[in-house]
Write a structure and sequence with these properties.
The protein is mainly alpha-helical. The chain has one domain. The protein is built from eight helices and no strands. Helix 2 runs antiparallel to helix 3, helix 4 runs antiparallel to helix 5 and helix 6 packs antiparallel against helix 7. It comes from Albula goreensis. It is found in: Peroxisome membrane. This is Peroxisomal membrane protein 11C. One of its GO terms (cellular component) is peroxisomal membrane.
């Protein structure tokens, strides 16, 4: 019990950890609220309250992201053009992902400021642009994970061919390491695909399934992605946008 409490406190004391918890609560509330809103009239009041709570948490995260530009810039700058990356495909997919992430923040800031009536521009186009950049980042992330899986498969085959040259324990450790990396990339793909489904839903009407998801489905996809993010947090290294 104490260990679980200490873990939760440690997570909430970090910005990224707190954001992931808020994100999970946001989508979880939307999932439950969406389900209850489709039930009997007696449950609709609770469902509506949960949807409003979800909207407030989403707004909270948007405001907090006003301060993410500098950290994202520092991450992009440290990666640069990925000269330390051994595979050219991974290198350029990562660079393009960083560009999309970096541009996402100012576009969202403009949209938020327009909605808050701090500036006199229409927010719709800026929300669309920020969502488009988020979707592009997610798609690039999926492609990068698929590339990593391909390289891991090649590495595993190479190690199988040289198995007789390795000690039994070394081979088992290497195989276990590769399997752990494969699991992490598969989870990243599932998380990104869930978020990509929502990103398309929030695009202007007429684009694929934009605007067609019920609240509970948006919540389900977001909760799935958020729980994967929480699970992977000790191993995560850097910058996804939402």
């Amino acid at each position: 019990m104490n260990d679980s409490l200490d873990l939760m406190v440690n997570v909430l004391e970090t910005y990224r950890g707190r954001d992931k918890v808020i994100r999970t609560l946001c989508y979880g509330s939307q999932l439950v609220g969406g389900v209850l809103s489709q039930k009997t009239a007696g449950s609709s009041g609770v469902g509506k309250s949960l949807l409003l709570f979800s909207a407030q948490l989403s707004h909270c995260r948007t405001v907090l992201r006003l301060f993410d530009d500098l950290s994202m810039f520092a991450y992009s700058r440290s990666y640069g053009l990925g000269t330390t990356e051994s595979d050219p495909g991974l290198r350029w997919l990562s660079v393009l992902t960083n560009v999309a992430d970096q541009l996402y923040y100012p576009c969202e800031h403009v949209a938020w400021a327009a909605d808050a009536q701090l500036i006199r521009v229409k927010s719709d186009r800026w929300w669309t642009l920020s969502t488009l950049l988020w979707g592009a980042s997610l798609l690039l992330g999926v492609l990068r994970s698929l590339r990593v899986l391909l390289l891991l498969r090649r590495r595993l085959r190479k190690r199988e061919r040289t198995r007789q040259m390795d000690s039994g324990e070394a081979h088992v450790n290497q195989r276990s390491e590769v399997q752990h990396q494969v699991q992490a990339e598969v989870l990243s793909i599932l998380s990104s695909m869930a978020d990509l489904g929502n990103a398309i839903h929030w695009m202007p009407a007429g684009f694929l399934w934009a605007g067609r998801f019920p609240n509970w489905l948006v919540g389900l996809l977001g909760t799935t992605s958020s729980l994967i993010g929480l699970y992977q947090m000790p191993w995560s290294e850097g910058g996804a946008t939402d």
